[in-house]
Design goal:
three-stranded mixed β-sheet, alpha/beta
Length: 253
């Protein structure tokens, strides 16, 4: 467990809460590992019927910690991406429990792409969704190049993943990857209501029906690996390293 992540079991629901407000819940390698463990350990626990992922009120997550990104991009290691991030993506791909996301505020990078692995997404009307991979000289990750066009069509996916366009909560709702838009500060409470509704349904029927709706995990992990290889190559590119350094300089300024 990490100080920046809280995992609690309430009734039949596991609540995973990112808690790093000073960094807008930017996800560290320890946080990736803890989230992955929380999801993995729920799989064989019949008492856990549903999972909620939230960042609390005001922010979901600013995505991957960019200092980690820059460290990976300039290292001489053979591993193209930090293994804990990949492990988290694999956990999402193999997860069999319904996942609800409660998004209040910004959801950047993997903060947006993880939502396409979820089954029900609630967003505050101040939420924004962006995947600025291109701006950093990178490519989509998390099987998003497979899941995002499937969820909302090629043109919207191109605008999000290639052009780096930011989506509002209303845009996301219209695109179909947000179920409900609620007032700020209410996403988590509404997510718990949805979890109770799901948990009241017959467990086996839910599991089988969910499996029928989802792509096979093998398809997801194959695309995660393909994206991960390209992502790792791009992180070491002059284009990406230059973009990261420029970004870090702007942050200092």
């Amino acid at each position: 467990m990490t100080e920046h992540l809280i995992v609690s079991d309430e009734d039949a629901t596991r609540v995973i809460t990112m808690r790093r407000p000073e960094k807008k819940n930017a996800i560290t390698q320890d946080m990736y590992r803890a989230m992955s463990d929380a999801i993995d350990k729920a799989q064989d626990n019949p008492a856990i019927r549903c999972i909620i992922i939230t960042g609390g009120s005001g922010v979901f997550t600013a995505g991957n910690d960019l200092e980690d990104f820059l460290k990976d991009g300039t290292s001489n290691a053979d591993v193209p991406r930090a293994s804990n991030a990949a492990k988290f993506l694999y956990s999402l791909a193999h997860n069999t429990k319904p996942i609800i996301a409660a998004v209040d505020g910004i959801a950047i990078g993997i903060g947006t792409t993880m939502l396409f692995h979820c089954d029900h997404v609630l967003a505050s009307n101040t939420a924004t969704f962006s995947t600025p991979f291109i701006n950093l000289g990178l490519v989509p990750e998390g099987a998003s190049s497979l899941l995002v066009p499937r969820a909302m069509g090629h043109q919207r996916a191109f605008a999000m993943l290639v052009m780096g366009r930011k989506f509002s909560a209303d845009d996301a709702h219209a695109a179909g990857f947000v179920n409900v838009v609620v007032a700020p500060g209410h996403t988590e409470a509404e997510a718990r209501k949805v979890a109770r509704e799901i948990c009241a349904l017959p467990a086996e029927a839910v599991a089988i029906s969910r499996k029928l709706l989802k792509l096979p995990p093998e398809d997801l992990t194959r695309r995660i690996d393909q994206e991960g290889h390209l992502f790792g190559e791009r992180m070491r590119s002059k284009e990406a390293i230059s973009a990261f350094k420029a970004f870090m300089e702007r942050k200092k300024g």
